[in-house]
Amino acid sequence: MTPSIIVNQVSKSFGKKEVLQDVDLTVVPGQIYGLIGPSGSGKTTLVKLIVGMDRPSKGDIRVLDTAVPNLQLLQKIGYMAQADALYNDLSGKENLAFFASLFKLKKKEQTKRIAYAAELVNLTSELGKKVEAYSGGMKRRLSLAIAVIQDPQVLVLDEPTVGIDPELRLSIWKELYRLKNDGKTILVTTHVMDEAEKCDQLAMIRDGRLITSGSPAELKDRYGIHSLEEVFLKAGGGIK
After folding, report:
1. What is the pTM of this model?
2. In sequence order, what are the beta bridge partners of 78?
């Protein structure tokens, strides 16, 4: 199976500060791949490199067998950033329609995808409101809806469920499972260990380095402990 995402010996520096060092990563279709690590570990920087928002200082990245950054490739990637990039003076529906138009969806398909995306994040009844009236959690939900609007082959989600209530979180993960079963590739960052358990594969990042990777079961077996939190601490040298 051809990998959807290949990160090969990638490093990234900002001035003299190296935020990623020699990261290798492979994600295949039909897989939910989790990046876990504390704030400042380099997760968001790596995600931005994968979607082509920046270039690595060293190494290379390929998504869907295409070197990034690549403008055409963005049509096939759904991206949800950690910070919401929304138009506050537009309604939720207008935001969805605007982003759908960027992906050249025909009117009928656009209507269908807006309805699907809004239903996914439980915003259907709120679409007529301006985004400036949305709560922080509602804005996160709208950002997730925008990420799936064009039915992308690859979904890259940076802390997608922060500020979202537990019931809706379960609903979103149920949909992520459905998408992976349809052959989509999903890369998600999180620092919530119960969400990490839901991933097929994990990469643990600390101080810009990938310290260990594998399925949740493999990682716990490898380190002889029963929780991913302890795995992360032990892999990073925090506990013996």
Report:
1. 0.90
2. 155
